[in-house]
């Protein structure tokens, strides 16, 4: 079974109005179970729109979105995925522990199950000692780790991440990249990851999906075969080759139309 399948997906915003935008045009993309796929492309090419379609936060104008073998809506109801966005999106008035418990509350899990699962997730992201803290007492990187713990709390087979590390300094970012890969490897989670960073996409992914602006299309899919990642990977020739391939693919796409003001 595939984790995500988009077939002939088109998304038009404000259809029929003067401000009509075709954000995505005939997207076909499959993400296999356990696969890490990044989306990269110029600003406005529809990366977030694609992710929101998979999450069933918006619906396609045409085409189908299947998640874990089900229509996107059913997958949302069944909590088949977790979401982590650039803004950690934590609730300030809830402790770290209770933030991570939230999706379990929505699922109706018992108090003890919620507690134990949240603890397990906080251990996983190295924040067990901060369970009783409030988000404002944590650094940006720690908040992002809480958001990842929350996204993983229901043990979803799929994570949807929209520039989750975009606001972090380079060192923290690299550390969290490694942590994310470790978590995915240990849990078998598939990931669809939006980023603006070519090195980040190459480092994390099995495949990098390169998109063109407007209407957003997939221009190339670059496979990355770097084996197990580690500090040496970032210095390796294969890593730089991957970066060059993605950069070329980004340059090679059609010239983006002028964005309306
Ligand atoms: N709710 C909406 N209503 C109207 N237009 C929208 C809406 N959401 C997105 N768009 C438009 O769809 C296009 C794609 O937007 P999207 O946010 O998916 O791009 P992106 O690739 O994620 O951009 P960025 O890299 O800047 O985050 C843009 O032209 C955007 O203005």
TrEMBL record:
Does the keyword section mention ATP-binding? yes
**Highest taxon listed in the record's lineage:** Bacteria
Entry keywords, A to Z = ATP-binding, Nucleotide-binding, Transport
Q: What is the originating organism of this protein?
A: Asanoa ferruginea
This one is known as NitT/TauT family transport system ATP-binding protein
Q: Where is the ABC transporter domain?
A: 4-238
GO molecular function per UniProt: ATP binding; ATP hydrolysis activity
Provide the transmembrane region boundaries: none
């Amino acid at each position: 079974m595939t984790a995500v399948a988009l077939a002939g997906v088109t998304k038009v915003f404000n259809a029929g109005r003067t401000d009509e935008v075709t954000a995505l045009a005939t997207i076909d993309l499959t993400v296999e179970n356990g696969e890490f796929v990044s989306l990269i492309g110029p600003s406005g090419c529809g990366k977030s729109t694609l992710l929101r379609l998979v999450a069933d936060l918006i619906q396609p104008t045409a085409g189908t979105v299947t998640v874990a073998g089900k229509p996107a809506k059913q997958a949302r109801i069944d909590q088949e995925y977790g979401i982590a966005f650039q803004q950690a999106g934590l609730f300030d008035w809830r402790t770290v522990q209770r933030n991570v418990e939230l999706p379990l509350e929505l699922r109706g899990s018992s108090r003890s199950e919620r507690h134990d699962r949240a603890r397990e997730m906080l251990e996983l992201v190295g924040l067990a000692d901060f369970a009783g803290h409030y988000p404002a007492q944590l650094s940006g990187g720690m908040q992002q780790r809480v958001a990842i713990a929350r996204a993983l709390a229901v043990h979803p087979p799929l994570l949807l991440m929209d520039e989750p590390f975009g606001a972090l300094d380079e060192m923290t970012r690299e550390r969290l990249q490694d942590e994310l890969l470790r978590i995915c490897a240990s849990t078998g989670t598939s990931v669809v990851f939006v980023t603006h960073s070519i090195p980040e996409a190459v480092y994390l992914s099995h495949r990098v999906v390169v998109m063109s602006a407007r209407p957003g299309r997939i221009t190339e899919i670059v496979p990355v075969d770097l084996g197990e990642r580690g500090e040496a990977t970032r210095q390796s020739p294969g890593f730089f080759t991957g970066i060059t391939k993605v950069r070329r693919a980004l340059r090679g796409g059609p010239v983006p139309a002028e964005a309306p003001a």
